[in-house]
Amino acid sequence: MAHLLLIYISMAWAIGCPTIALWLMDRVLVVDDNRDLGELTSEILVEKGFKVNIAFDGETALKRIKQEPYDVMILDYGLSGISGLIVLKKTQQIRPNLRTIMISAFGDASTRLRAKELGAYAFIDKPFNIDGLVKVARKALKKGKGGID
After folding, report:
1. What is the distance between the alpha carbons of residues 115 and 64, in angstroms, rounded to a whole number?
2. Smallest Cα–Cα separation from 102: which of 90, 138, 118?
3. pLDDT tens across 13-57, in order?
4. pTM of the predicted model, to two decimals?
């Protein structure tokens, strides 16, 4: 199925319909107050075929979630201002089907459990392997909401 989608996207670009190609791409919102990490993660996800937007704080993330239907959100637990867990909780009220991958340098067992209770699809420790993150994002897109690793 994924290969067929890539063929459709390539065909849309080839015939001069970039809007259709972008519409077919999986939409990811990266939320991290570390600008360098957020931008690097975004650039790599774009290279891997995702359409990506970035938010550097929880307020901006929630505004974007209200404006655009993302498929996956990669959300930092330790945001300044509104915490990642509060963003996750509010996101589940706004878009309950949005699959969220929580990332954190401070992921103890209680944090993971709380994220799972609030609806996180997965929890990945920082520093993370970008290929592993992409793999989890693709798995989330195939399976929908589900268990934390």
Report:
1. 21
2. 118
3. 455 544 443 444 689 999 999 999 999 999 999 999 999 999 999
4. 0.80
